[in-house]
Amino acid sequence: MKWNFPTAEQLAAALRAGEVTSAELTDEAIARIERDNDAINAICVPDFDRARAAARDADRARARGEDRPLLGIPVTVKDSYDIAGLPTTWGMPPHRDYMPAEDAVQVSRLKAAGAVVLGKTNVPLGLQDIQSFNEIYGTTNNPWDHSRTSGGSSGGSAAALACGFGALSIGSDIAGSLRTPAHFCGIYAHKPTLGLAASRGMVPPPGPALPVEQDLAVVGPMARTARDLTLLLDVMAGPDPLTFGVAYHLTLPPARHERLRDFRVLVLDEHPLIPTGSAVRAGVGRVADALVDGGARVERDSPLLPDLTEAAMLYRQLLFSGSVARFPVEAYEQLRTRAAQLSANDQSLDAAMLRGMVCSHRDWIEANSRRELHRHGWRQLFAEFDAVVCPITPTPAFPHDHNPDPRERRIDIDGVEYPYFDQLVWAGLATMPGLPATAVPAGRSPEGLPVGVQLIGPMFEDRTPLRLAELLEQKIGGFQAPK
Predict the structure, then answer these.
(1) Same domain, 46 and 182
(2) Counting Cβ atoms within 10 Å, is residue 275 exposed (0-12), middle (13-18) or buried (19+)?
(3) Catalytic-labelled residue, pool 150, 177, 199, 321
(4) Please, where are the H alpha helices in 163-225?
(5) Which has the least CB within 10 A, 66, 151, 165, 249?
(6) Catalytic site residue 177?
(7) How far apart (Å, rounded) are the C-alpha atoms in residues 326 and 336?
(8) Residue 1 confidence (pLDDT)
(9) Is there a contact between 361 and 322 (Cβ–Cβ < 8 Å)?
(10) Which residues contact residue 78 at a Cβ distance below 8 angstroms, ignoring those fewer than 6 apart?
């Protein structure tokens, strides 16, 4: 099986050169899934018959002289995207049989680019966890250690890529759902600038799939190399043809620099609200050392950096203000009662979450105004720096924890326990202001687990962190297949 781990770029070159056919690539990918997926459980809905048919169509198209960006390349798709003829469940048992009538806009773009869709990848219930498990499809394991999580909510996609189940995948991110699984599984992912890629058809069942972009949430590419991220982002990026796409066409600016020594980078490894574990701190250090060795200008602090505590609290409020929209009235009233009992002096992350769940529209408008001040602060920072390097979560992949009450779960950071959802503060750093962030491998923990970091870039300058990711890959290496 020599074709399971080459990059999408390498596969495209081999297809153009006639060294392999799409039918052969697809058969090898399916054989590997059938061999290894039982242990990992990354692919939750296989679509092998249609994949083989699409591969044959791709080979015929190439024989006619066609050459599209992903023509004949096997890929996977996160379960949360609508694919006509396949169930879209979001891991929610009441919707196990829901079948959308049409493809999500990003699935349509994949197919138009010539990709061969192998099937759908597993997610947590409602996409609302840092792990990927649900009652319908079970638990997705980390390919490096089956006792640990692959991350969430795009954990199935990350595990699939690490195992060679296709060359590319598409996921989504509102709380690190692209970046955390990439960090845990040792692959690459890119959270685009908010609004850069249309998300119609990435909607909880039963829909409807309206052309509405949700606050904070994005869809984005996952791959085994930085260059493949750029290849897939170019397919995904652009407004919805039903709304802004009627009038607008996308032109992303080029990367600010092509050489490592020209980059100006701010490196962070400490957060005021949660410690950074030693393994992740070492990963950030490896990247910082590579930047210095490559001649980049590296700083460890800057007065231009927006306040991290305020940013985390604001992110928490905005994130959870939308999470209760479908709660029953009784449950919502219970939250209001609990929030009213909070002390005014309680400025914990849990308190911010609870207040966010019951905030009024007036409160939300005020929070959004503060977000705009943070965005302005980031614009000022990115006049001085080109990228920010920082953790994605404080630890590598943690052991499976399926306690039904997430409030009782804990995250172990170098032997000290912290509230489970406190680990989201680093993901929120880019999400709250809507900045692009690229997750890149940064070595291994002492236990041999992958460790990643994120490269945050200026708004709508997605090619800048992607280019930096490519240069770092050349400097310190990138994806390595699990043993």
Answers:
(1) yes
(2) middle
(3) 177
(4) 179-185
(5) 249
(6) yes
(7) 15
(8) 53
(9) no
(10) 120, 121, 123, 153, 154, 156, 157, 169, 170, 171, 172
Q: Point out the domain boundary residue: 217, 241, 260.
A: 260
Look-up: residue for tokens 């996952």? 222
Look at residue 423 and tell me if it is in a domain: no
Q: What is the tally of structural domains in the chain?
A: 2
Question: pLDDT at position 483, please?
Answer: 84
Six-digit token string for 210: 């309206």
Q: What is the DSSP letter of 394?
A: S
Q: Is 278 a catalytic residue?
A: no
CA-CA distance, 78 to 58, in Å (whole number)? 22
Query: For 212-266, what is each residue's pLDDT tens digit?
Result: 999 999 999 999 999 999 999 999 999 999 999 999 999 999 999 999 999 999 9
Task: State residue 347's pLDDT score.
Answer: 86
Locate 129 and state its tokens. Answer: 């966890």
Q: Are residues 150 and 282 in the same domain?
A: no
* Domain-terminating residue out of 235, 260, 285: 260
| pLDDT of amino acid 366 | 96
CA–CA gap between residue 283 and residue 104 (Å, rounded): 36
Give me the half-sphere count of Cα atoms (radius 13 Å) on the Cβ side of residue 61. 23
Q: What pLDDT is recorded for position 325?
A: 76
Flag residues of the chain having pLDDT under 70.
1
Alpha carbon distance 167, 160 (integer Å) = 9
How much of the chain is helix, strand and coil, in % rounded to 5? 40, 15, 45
d(CA 270, CA 389): 11
Contacts (Cβ under 8 Å, ≥6 apart) of 161 = 76, 167, 168, 169, 185, 187, 222, 223, 224
**Full domain range(s) for residue 339:** 261-418
Considering the entire predicted model, what is its pTM?
0.97
Q: Which amino acid is at 98?
A: Y
- For helices 105-112 and 226-236, the axis angle rounded to 10 degrees is 110
Query: Which residue among 22, 80, 150, 153 is the active-site one?
Result: 153
